[in-house]
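Researcher: Last one for today. Full complex below.
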Amino acid sequence: MAAPVLTRGPRRTPARPATGPVPVGSSRQLLWGALRTRRRDLLAASVLYSTHQLGESMVPVVIGLTISHAVDHGSRASIGLWLGVLAADFVLLSMSYRFGARASMRAKQHTGHQVRMWLTDRVVGPAGGVSHPPGDLLSRASSDADRVGAYAGMFAIAVAAAVVLTAATAVLLSFSLLLGAVIVAGTAVLLVAQNSASRLLRRRSGTEQHQRARATTLAEDLVRGLRVLKGIGAQRNAADAYCRASRTAGAASLHATSSQATLASVGALLTGLYLTAITGLGGWLALDGRLDLGRLVAALGLAQFVIGPMRVLSGASAAYARALASAERVREVLASESAVQDAVQVQVQVQVQDAAQQQHTAVGRGGKGAGEIAFAGVALGGAADRAALRLEAVVPAGTMTGVVCGDPVAAARIPHLLAREHDPSSGTVLLDHVPIRDLPLDDLRARVLVSPHEAVLLPGTVADNLAALAAEPAAVERAAAAAFADQVVEAVPAGERTPVGDRGEALSGGQRQRVALARVLAAAPPVLVLHDPTTAVDAVTEAGIAARVGRLRQGLTTLVVTTSPAWLARCDQVVLLTPGGCRVAPHTALLGEDAYRELVAR
Amino acid sequence: MSAPHAQPALLPVATGRQVRDYLRTLLRGRRLLLAGTVAAMAAQSALALAGPVAIGRATQAVVDHRSSAALAGPVALLAAAALAAAATGWAATVLLARLVLPAIARLREDAVTTVVELPVDAVEAGGTGDLVSRVSGDVELVSDAASGALGSFVGSALAIVSALAGLAALDWRFAVAALPAVPIQAGTLRWYLRTSRPIYAAGRIADGRRASALLTGFTALPTLRALRLGASQQQRIGAASADSMEYEFRATRAATRFFGRLNLAEFTGLGAILLVAFLLVRSGQADVGAATTAALFFAGLFDPINALLGVFDSMQQAGAGLRRLVGITTVRPAAAPPDPDPGPDPGRRPPTEPSLAADDVRFGYGPGPDVLHGVSLRVEPGQRLAVVGTTGSGKSTLASLLAGLREPGAGSVTFGGAALTALDLPQRHIALVTQETHVFAGSVADNLRLGRPGAGDAEIRAALAAVGATAWVDALPDGAGTAIGGGGHPLTAGQAQQLALARVRLLDPSVVILDEATAEAGSDAARALDHAAAALVEGRSAVVVAHRFTQVVDADAIVVLEQGRVTAHGTHDQLRSAGGAYASLWRAWSQGRPADED
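Model: Here's the assembly. Have a good evening.
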């Protein structure tokens, strides 16, 4: 199958697969591990940003020197010389910014991307065990990954700030020890004062963000549930609730903004008074003859300039804390315990050579006689009343076998166990006499294909979904016919090129089920496990599907967990699972039993 | 099943003119506040000139070897300016917030209010992801810009204007010397806007695709594992993420080139001013202090220019977001005719029990072929009508037409003789429940109150009891107050659907349409749901679309739908003996089932 074309737009940098072990020991490890993957970009950006900042800080110095050496009655040659120096400084600062910013953006984006890939790789990986709700995962994979990336983007800026601050301090001290010391100390005091003031006010902005986040959540929820709301004409009630939340958020924003305005004004006032003091001191030193004109102008320029880098540095620790918090939220997911252990890893650790050997000889793909499933005392569930339900049965290779279970929760466990969503608390499931726990997950799932009842279609066209598991057009066509999915293709507006929408929402329930069924049939696996595959399909179609699937699967093993007589009538044998035990018999024979009749009569 | 094109048709994006018109209506009647805001901002930026003036005077004092008393003037000027700038800055920020924040709140409320009125077709065609990203992501972008970037944008613009004015006031020749920078800056800005605007717009869409790929993956985990599609989904996510990254790189390349050209402009202007200063000082037409002031004025322009252009990024992104938000409001249905006579209190049963009728209804999705070809039927008050037919026969489409969610292409659907299209919110009287469930973030009671906002606790309890949900709701940590949906307590699909039925119960409509409402919940809840549905239908008119005949056999009337046409109509016994499609459906259903009634 050709991979569906999902993205158009620019030529993209190939997504690099996550290589090497993912650092999940601690949030700190994760953060720095992610940054380390972009070492070269970070180094380049740090060097170039430092050069840029030095160039910027030299602009007032060069202006000052130009004024004192050239403008103040210098020669023509001197003005030429100093303008040349100014030009050189501009070329330096401009070019270093250009390439520094690009390197920094690469570091930022790739770091975020890397963290996102680590996270999604774990979430969609075969071992399962991540139980966070989708919306929560989305925010971790977007905002949190991006926030870790943003720290990578900040990193070089902070390094450059430190470098340029050191250099500016050195220059100022060389001009005048007194003036330099006052400027550096004064700036530090200024920022400490501002930071403590802002901490007092941060709580207000926290409330504002909370209110806004709440409004956003409401809006999102409203859109996702819109069809449900519209069905009962309740959309305006929901919109009213949103408008109320929006107004609360608006009031909080106004409140927070006036706090910020106060903070900013106090900051501006302090800075203004500080610069006043520096100007007074510098002017006095110059009048006293202890500072020449050029140095005075340069020093006043630098006094203003160093506020920037110092602010960056003082904000860096807060940015680090934010990035760490995000890294921790990603790490929590990465460190989720697997729902099941993959035999590949187990084998390496425990060296179960025997089992591996056996499995490779007996279970070679398409090997003769492959496809027998045996349940040996498999406990279906933990609840006390279900403890009694133990599945003890053999599904002979090449048969279509139905499983009828009165307890729907226990019934749903059977496909889950075969797909190894989790392992049974006791008992063993065997595939061709090998416990499935000893098979590598990928191998098991290739041979035993389980189509969950709530099987989800993936975005793309109907054709993409039909062919998702099989390459051969003939096989796809046969499967579509067997599942009556060819009728779906005829019914939808653009035929097989019709997009199914997010999660297949553009199709009706019955259409979705048939496409999902055709999808797994096309793969023609040695063992196919279905769970209530046609609950949303009408009776005639259901009977037709059961008959055609029976024929298509001739010679292959098919296990159907259902109470639908349409399917059970087509089965070679039916396993009736009751708290009293398991009975295996043909459908017609079981119909004589009251318990069975009651289960399939619905 | 509606999107006619291979690529989902996204909702419209507003044009610049539409956005301007919209903003104008938002700011109508607030001109005084607008003027006050601009005045405060202008005053603040003019005060920024005091610094260079004072420093220039101090420099001149040094050149002239004056006594230290000469410093008193400049120092006092600086201190006074600092005080005044702090005060005007505070006023500017607060006034701007008062001007803009309520407007933004109205914009987002407008957008959401419009979204809920969008026809279902438009929502399905555009995709939920696009809408979600508009009402959350874009709203955030615009709100952020309004409370941050906008202020520094306007402030910087004013600072630039006043610095240029200051330069001119010093000596007109300084202002002339600064001029060569202007064409470079103007050209650069035009180039940048042209280049970066499409990048930002496309980048936002790419972000939406990334979110969509992530969410699809995260909601389909068991399927991905079972079908071994995890790796390919991971690839899609990777591709979508790399794609959105690529737009960031493009934007950065454009931005850095932009700043490079601005550096050139800075150097050109600064060099020219220094050269003019050299010439003027040399010829005795200006003193060193003025030259210093001029150079500092110009150097003081760098920051506001960079700030202006630095927030251009967020202003542009907010602009793209704004266009997408206003775009939503442009799809407002041409004329939603609110019932001139509002009639009965919505949500309350009308005094008489009107009948629901479809008359020769035809319907097709978009440009596709018709799905319904002239369907007529009638549901009398208190009657229960079952609709059966093979999958794809048009049952769900018919259900949504009967509930007034879609408009017939031809023919009409009437309720008590009035066309549904002429009624406001006909679903308050004719409620539709499909197999699609959604648990809203909030408590169990909040979820139910969406049906009737004023419902009291006793009514909530009664509705829960009616659908048989009391037992499990009471078992929740906080009973009916337990937070569900979003990050709250997880519910099964069956429980979610029970709540949906309870919600309808609370709404108490005259007609209930159940479109396979109990079909897709895992079989565990199916029985409980069947009971709940039966209880809901009791005592009102109902249309039941079902393929399980247990819900069909005892209906008052049954219509058989085949390929968009009603091919038979009658009771179970009549239809069964008449042969045809119904009889074969019945045979297929009852085959293998124990004969229970005859």
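The longest strand of chain B covers residues 370-379. Residues 1-8, 334-351 of chain B have pLDDT under 50 and may be disordered.
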